[in-house]
Amino acid sequence: MKNIYIIMEAFILRIILIGAPGAGKGTQAKLISKHFKIPHLSTGDMFRENIANKTSLGLQVQTLINQGLLVPDDVTISLVRNNINSEKCWSGFLLDGFPRNLYQATELDSFLNCKIDKVILIDVPKEIIINRLKLRRVCANCGCIHQVISNNSTINQSCSECGGTLIQREDDKESVVLDRISVYNNLIKPMLDYYSAQGILHEVNGNESIENVFNNICSIIRPTPQS
Ligand code: AP5
Ligand code: MG
Q1: Residue 182: CB within 6 Å of ligand 1?
Q2: How many angstroms separate the most distant Cα atoms in the chain?
Q3: Separation of 51 CA from ligand 1 center, angstroms?
């Protein structure tokens, strides 16, 4: 029985993606989730779904999110705990946007009861992410992330995956983006130190093509014997 447990553990992946707003977490998470067949848990997506469905959680967090502020830790932690404890995460998970501060990271460890395999930081310079977020549009139907050529080119544009309407996130307005970047920069260092001390923190240059970033992340998740 113990041997079966050890073999199963070898195939389970528990990954955390960290990065500033617009670093490419969502873009990479969708590719990684599909490639490694692990569920993608994005706290931002979960909150936006609740806002769209006008649930009590959505109504509670909408103003904070639109202003670029963090949702209170207890609300976020309980959302993640419920998802991670569900059946879909038995084979592992890929966290995108959680944890965001040292408290969330330590709470995650305390309710997980098992180890995180890799924490991957996607690093992108501030001026690049500001530009990316100005030109990001998301599909109101399937959530697919798009990058448009210019703000004007989005008029009447639809999602290449499902034909849904492309919209701009409320928190992608430039003044809010700057606040989100400040929130990120103010909180990230102690959390990075926490994971670095455990030897599980890896960094990739996110200012390369989506494909290159993905390949670099794959070689961190499943290193070949030479790498
Ligand atoms: P969340 O949705 O997680 O937002 P975020 O962390 O600010 O990150 P983004 O989703 O904006 O960026 P991304 O890194 O996913 O980039 P993407 O792949 O889209 O959270 C939203 C809010 O929810 C928070 O502000 C907070 O209020 C709340 N919240 C969430 N989690 C919380 C938590 N743990 N605690 C408390 N509150 C929480 O890419 C961006 C653009 O760049 C796209 O257009 C994409 O096409 C393009 N792109 C991506 N990669 C590349 C590349 N390599 N080259 C060129 N373009 C690229
Ligand atoms: Mg995202």
Answers
A1: no
A2: 60
A3: 17
Binding site membership of 147 for ligand 1 (Cβ less than 6 Å): yes
Which residues are within 8 A (CB) of 224 and not within 5 positions of it... i.e. 6 or more apart?
none
The Å distance, Cα 76 to ligand 2 centre, comes to 15
40-76, pLDDT tens digit by residue?
999 999 999 999 999 999 999 999 999 999 999 999 9
